Amino acid sequence: MNLKVAVLPGDGIGPEIMEQGVAVLNAIADKFHHQFSYEEALCGASAIDAVGDPFPPETYQVCMRADAVLFAAVGDLRFDNDPKATVRPEQGLLAMRKMLGLFANVRPVATFECLLHKSPLKEELLRGADFVVIRELTGGMYFGEKYQDYDMAYDTDIYTRPEVERILKVAFELAMQRRKHLTVVDKANVMASSRLWRQIAQEMAPHYPEVTTDYMFIDNASMRVLTEPRFFDVVVTENTFGDILTDETSCITGSMGLQPSASLGEHTPLFEPVHGSWPQAAGQNLANPVAQILSAAMLLEHFGLTAEGKLVREAVDASLAANVRTPEIQVEGGAHYGTKEVGAWIVDYILNA
Ligand code: IPM
Ligand code: MN
Predict the structure, then answer these.
(1) What residue's CA is closest to ligand 1, atom 11?
(2) Pairing verdict, β 212-217 and 181-186
């Protein structure tokens, strides 16, 4: 298969983990005789520094002419600590999601048997947990009207019927492919936007009679994902709730550095780790490349390259089992492996499989 991939390393640890993500794609291309080509583009703080815009028009063009975008992370401390900054790296990511119409963010939550003890949660509670959070990605408070002056500020959590219908459709259809259980997470006891979500979900549910649909308030869901993670199969929720819930669910896997995601919608699909740019670790060969590598696996699977995706996952599992791990998940006394070494080990495994 020929695939043109837009490569957006971004900021902080982004370039380091991206190097490993691309190396893994190249290993797969070698092994399975595919032609993958890459076009790199700027975004985030590095784009602000270079051209004053966190998502320059040139980057948009690169994304639009690609089959897929592989994205790492954006964000920089200079901006985090400056609430008055008018241009922020995160605006690049948000503009990209909006301009590519990437309304459905798919964030799988799974456990690795050998990492169960790395979770702050009890192992017996986690074993076998396997669900997917579908986060709406181009609406809600992130994009609703905002206002700020010296004394007052607001964000508007706005959703239209078509926006809610299209994301619920993605969720119902995914539930049909999985264990046929959908949990709609909202705050319908307080928020009007949530009541619209719940109303539309109740209208759509009868069209998916095989799917068991239940409704859960976000506060309750925040607890239940930790106390009873095996209850869940597919979870669908609005942008802000989904942002918070998926950092929380990374505790189930044991590290933010293991969580991939796919963002799908109208134009080029995008694959990115759930974690951020960890600027404190930039350039130190410390960051876990696995979330980026698993995002590459999701990219392959998106194009029907199932055996290829499976081999990447197998290679990641094998690296974890062999304790070839970055420091945050290394076993006590285990050897030190950096970003590069973990990536190289996974690449080797793929080439020798
Ligand atoms: C995420 C990130 C982003 C978000 C930030 C970097 C804008 O936290 O992808 O979850 O809030 O969506
Ligand atoms: Mn987030």
Answers:
(1) 243
(2) parallel
